[in-house]
Amino acid sequence: MDSKDYYTPNEVAQLFMVSPVTVRQWAQKGLLTAALTAGGHRRFLHQELIRFAHERGLTLNWPGQGTTKILIVEDDEQVAGFLYEFLQGRPGIEAVDIAESGFEAGRKVQSFNPSVVLLDLMMPGMDGFAVCQNLKADPITRGIRVLAMTGYPTADNIERIMDAGAEVCLAKPIDTVRLMELLRIADQPATSHS
């Protein structure tokens, strides 16, 4: 996944599969907001591209699209089921799996090989803090993105999980628009496989 914050007009053109001229026209008409560099060149913010794509029903073709594998680590069946249904089959997501405990997460990380772990903090046995520390301590799993989530977003919990190596700590119920922005995937409905 690309983790850039700013894109050039040529990069934006590739993401939308249009010509750079089209991107410049969008910017000139005020449809797509750009920041100007000191040299007068346009740069487009990541969030702005997602907003623009969402409003117009366009697909963003991120580099590595289709390779996002998400492991949901959550002991609450309803929350895990909701997230699974929400994410499964969306453009840009290759596969989704669920681990119902910290211990199961350890096993599934090895077999499923996720690129992103959606990690609940409060679980019996091994909690999310320990899972995150274990992932970040191992050179093989250190690169996995950890997006923590909790029903108890206290300053202490957020600080502890960020110190453990999480990228962010989301409050429950999960803001799905924010989640899709973090995953760098345009928020589009899941495609049916019928």
Element string (H = helix, E = strand): EHHEEHEHEHEHEHEH
Number of helices: 8
Fraction of residues in H or I helices: 25-40%
Give the beta-strand count.
Answer: 8
At the fourth CATH level, what is the homologous superfamily of the largest domain? Answer: Response regulator
CATH topology of the largest domain: Rossmann fold
Characterize the biggest β-sheet: 5 strands, parallel
Question: So, CATH architecture of the largest domain?
Answer: 3-Layer(aba) Sandwich
| Count of the domains | 2
Please state the average pLDDT score. Answer: 86
Low-confidence stretches: 187-194
Query: Could you say which structural class the secondary elements and strand pairing correspond to?
Result: alpha/beta
Strand content: 15-25%
- N→C terminal distance: 28 Å
Q: Give the overall shape.
A: elongated
